[in-house]
Amino acid sequence: MSLPARIVQHRFSVLTPGRGFTEISREVARCVAEAGMQAGTAHVYTHHTSCSLIITENAAPEVRHDLERYIARLVPDGDPAYRHDDEGPDDMPAHIRAVLTSASATVPIVAGALALGTWQGIYLWEHRTHGHRRQLTITLTGA
Amino acid sequence: MSLPARIVQHRFSVLTPGRGFTEISREVARCVAEAGMQAGTAHVYTHHTSCSLIITENAAPEVRHDLERYIARLVPDGDPAYRHDDEGPDDMPAHIRAVLTSASATVPIVAGALALGTWQGIYLWEHRTHGHRRQLTITLTGA
Amino acid sequence: MSLPARIVQHRFSVLTPGRGFTEISREVARCVAEAGMQAGTAHVYTHHTSCSLIITENAAPEVRHDLERYIARLVPDGDPAYRHDDEGPDDMPAHIRAVLTSASATVPIVAGALALGTWQGIYLWEHRTHGHRRQLTITLTGA
Fold first, then answer.
1. What global pTM score does this model have?
2. ipTM of the modeled complex
3. C97 → chain A, closest CA residue
4. Gap between the Cα atoms of A105 and A113, Å rounded
5. pLDDT digit of tens for each residue in chain B (143 aa)?
6. Interatomic CA distance for residues C117 and C113, integer angstroms
7. Whole-angstrom Cα distance, residue A51 to residue B100?
8. Where is the chain membrane-spanning (chains A, B, C) (predicted)?
């Protein structure tokens, strides 16, 4: 299979309730379905440095609970080693968490659909204690 | 250089022997060579949440040994803090390891070949104790 | 919006001063501006396994200071657990840091420009104690 590629792009935003996970798989899958592409990639990007995008297990909610608990221990709030705390004890930890994960996720488009595995979901991970409106861009490159 | 892009996609699977690394550089390089693209990107994706894809040193096997030993210490099996242990003490650590690394790797295609650095290899990192058959999708976008 | 895609590719190098961060946002933005693409993605890649690319806060220099201090504690130099120390106590830590971050960063192109968020910058993170000349490839896929 070898087909000429085109670009489709969407922007949207997510209002997070504070630290934790918001699944966005459905929004990305809908963009792919509407674009009518058979094969390619879906790139999702967050324009912030204190939240991130991850792909993880979408069934048991304990997985997300444990992810948050694990990273809170790995990157402690209010660590006296941090110089940067302009916005509070969760400011620098949010930047570190974002760097240890990623500002983007790229998932293939296969047979006209977003090809997440059966147990995979795309999540926006808010790393600040308080909620924020987060801007995202989805870029589809496909044929 | 500015050339019209097209998409070529392949799926394949890897049978892992349990925790550790399986190099897939050759498989990806072969897809690139067969596609006849001069410039672009090769996106490799795993459809699972308990293994991941990394790019690391391809010469000294001690590097992979040390990576596995390091992450086993960073993300301990059977930590009593985990709620999610449906599939055993390596279940939740596998999800955490996958989130701290990545479900995908993207490498440029330059001058008709996969442009890994001299010392770079693409590895599937199995995070479960037992072996699994892992599904992968390679999406080439190039000209 | 749905437009035919093309590929534009550039290679460049950065001479790092040793451990720390070199911002490359401007170089990437310039490639995007010159390519004349309205929408797509910019993929930046480093061909090495002991430095990495991250997207983080571009304003307060304390953020980068704290990132370096945090990761130096998380991945200690000269840990007796490492077998691989051919090039010194910072050899294996550099590979681990690279795996915990990434060899690439992908940022959307929106409205003809590199769409970094207001507070986002793309940084090459040198993980070796001494400086190195680092090779990078920028691949733009867009319309």
1. 0.97
2. 0.96
3. A100
4. 16
5. 567 899 999 999 999 999 999 999 999 999 999 999 999 999 999 999 999 999 999 999 999 999 999 999 999 999 999 999 889 999 999 999 999 999 999 999 999 999 999 999 999 999 999 999 999 999 999 99
6. 12
7. 14
8. none
C-alpha distance from residue B44 to each of A96, B31, B55, C112 (Å):
26, 11, 11, 27
Question: Cβ A96–C67 below 8 Å, yes or no?
Answer: yes
Q: Chain A: nearest CA to B60, how far in angstroms?
A: 25
* Test mutation, B70, B82, B134, B139, chain A, max A CBs within 10 A: B139
Nearest CA in chain B to C5: B5
Contact check, Cβ <8 Å, B103/A105: yes
Inter-chain residue contact C7 with B117, CB threshold 8 Å = no
Report d(CA C41, CA A14) in Å as an integer. Answer: 21
Query: Encoding tokens for residue A94?
Result: 């949010």
* Chain A neighbors of B95, CB-CB under 8 A: 56-57, 63, 66-67
Six-digit token pair at B77?
């099996």
CATH numbers and ranges of domains, chain A = 6-142 (2.60.120.460)
Judge contact between B137 and A108, C-beta under 8 A. Answer: yes
Integer distance in angstroms from the first to the last C-alpha of chain A? 10
B124 contacts B18 by C-beta, under 8 angstroms? no
Give A115→chain B minimum CA distance, Å.
8
